[in-house]
Amino acid sequence: MSNAVSSKAIENLQRAMQHAETIRPKVGGFPYLAEVLRQAGATHNLWYLPSCHCIFQTQQGAVAMQAQPLISGIADIPAFDQAALITALRTDQAGHTTFPEFLEASWKAGIVKYEVDFAARTVTYYGVNDEAYVEEYPAVAL
Question: Is the model's pTM score more than 0.85?
Answer without folding.
Answer: yes
